[in-house]
Amino acid sequence: MTEQRWQDVLQLLGQQKATDQLDQVLGLLLSHDERQSLGGRLAVIRALLDGELSQRQISAQLEVSIATITRASNNLKTMTDAERDELAARLQR
After folding, report:
1. Which residues contact 58 (CB under 8 A, 6 or more apart)?
2. Could you give the CA distance from residue 26 to residue 37 in angstroms, rounded to a whole number?
3. Are residues 57 and 22 in the same domain?
C-alpha cells in the first residue's frame, strides 16, 4: 500500500463522527476475519500494557498466537515511555 492510500484510509476514518458511521465504513473495508483480528490485537496490546500476565498467559486467555503477541510487544518497545503512557490512557475502558 502506498503511503497516500494509507493516508486516504486515515482521513476517511477520521471523518466519521459517530460510532455507527465508523462501524459502517470499517464493515466495508474489513472482512469478518480482519475485524476479529483487530479486536484480538487490541486486547493483546491492552494486556501487555497492563503487565499482569505473561505472554503465554495472554495467548491462552485471549486465544491468540504467540507471534501476534510478540509483534505487539515489539511495536510497544519502539515507543517512548510517554507514548506508551498516552496509549494506555486512550485504551482504558
Report:
1. 44, 47, 48, 64, 69
2. 13
3. no
Separation of alpha carbons 7 and 10, rounded Å: 5
Domain count, the chain: 2
pLDDT in tens, 47-72: 999 999 999 999 999 999 999 999 99
pTM for the whole thing?
A: 0.84
Going 37 to 41 to 46 to 48, the CA torsion angle's sign is positive
Whether 69 contacts 48, CB under 8 Å: yes
H or E element, residue 6: helix 3-15
- Give the integer Cα–Cα distance in Å for 91 and 39: 12
pLDDT at residue 2, as a whole number: 84
